[in-house]
Structures are given as structure tokens and as C-alpha cells.
Amino acid sequence: MAPGPVGQSTEQKDDAQTEAVPKKLAKGVVLGPDGKPCRTCTDISSLFAVSKSATSSKSTLPPKPPADCPPDIVALGRSSWTLLHSITATYPTAPSPELQSETKTFIHTFSKLYPCWHCASDFQMWLKEDRNTPRVSSRAEFGQWMCEAHNAVNVKLGKKEFDCNRWEERWKTGWKDGRCD
């Protein structure tokens, strides 16, 4: 079965080795190539909603999984953005042409290796637009580009955009009010 979009309705026949997928999936559930909810592409509360709807109609808050469980999409995204922004914060102010080339390669490779196939595909498509080519000629330019990339995702998720004029304060120097000192 081909991957489905977020929240897609689907029917799947029961057999001895396959659990039935509910006809109406919870909001935020992304189906994997096998037609089942993708653990990496779906947040834990949406997965919990799927399992509860398959077993009962009782509504309870999802349990917080132990810290040593595989990350859901929320934990994976938060960790990935932390890594990417931290890389931009320590990027040289005047990188060599070789490092600039390697950095562009890293971004494109990252987009192909990202564990959530849905997010990876979306980021690859975003990168293909000329205006979204990684800008890596300086730390300031790379940090601004990364903030714009992050904001593009925030917009798609209905989240508030970050003021990209403050990316360095957030990821390198710390807030001017001193709370990071």
C-alpha cells in the first residue's frame, strides 16, 4: 500500500498477521509505506489515539513514554532543529569554499536520511526551489537561512514563526536579558 497523507482514512482487511487500521485515523497520524501508522512520523499522542480508538472509545491522556523509547516526530523534530541551529551557530564567519560545498552536501544528505519519510520528502521538495538553496557563505547567512527553513516548517505546522533577526541570540550568544548566563 502506498504511503498516505496525514489523517488519511483507510480500510485494511484483517488477517492473522495484520491488525486492522481504523477507518478514520486520528489527526496527525502519518501512514508508512506498509499502510500502518509510521511511528517516526507521528507524535506519540496521535499514536495513542489510534490504539485507543482500535480498542475502546474511552478517552484518556496518553502516557508519556520512557525516555529510552524511540523518538516520536515531536522529539525527533526538536532534537534535529537543535542540532542544525547549533551547527549554524558554530559555523565559521568566513568558511572556506570547500567547507561551503561540504555544508551544502550535508544539508541535502540530511534531507535524504531524515528518519521521518514524510518530513524528509517535504524538506527535499522545499530545497529544490531556487530561493531555498542553502546559503552558506558566512555564519550570519547560514543562520538566517536555517531560521527561514525552520519557519517554513513552523508555518506548515501552524506554529508561530521565529524572528530570524534573533537567531544568533537564541542559538549562539544567549538572550540579551542574561537568563542564559
Automatic annotation (TrEMBL):
Catalysed reaction, written as an equation: 2 R'C(R)SH + O2 = R'C(R)S-S(R)CR' + H2O2
All copies of the ERV/ALR sulfhydryl oxidase domain together span 69-171
Transmembrane region(s): none
Signal peptide range: none
Q: Does the keyword Amino-acid biosynthesis apply?
A: no
**GO cellular component terms given for this protein:** mitochondrial intermembrane space
Query: Does this UniProt record's set of keywords contain Cell wall biogenesis/degradation?
Result: no
Q: Which Gene3D superfamilies does this one have?
A: 4.10.320.60, ERV/ALR sulfhydryl oxidase domain
**Chief subcellular site?**
mitochondrion
Which co-factor is required? FAD
Which GO MF terms are attached to this record? flavin adenine dinucleotide binding; flavin-dependent sulfhydryl oxidase activity
Question: Region annotation Disordered: residue ranges?
Answer: 1-36
Pfam hit, one: Evr1_Alr
Stated EC number for the protein is 1.8.3.2
Indicate where this protein resides in the cell: Mitochondrion intermembrane space
Keywords (A to Z) from UniProt? Disulfide bond, FAD, Flavoprotein, Mitochondrion, Oxidoreductase
Q: What is this protein called?
A: Sulfhydryl oxidase
What species is given as this protein's source? Melanomma pulvis-pyrius CBS 109.77
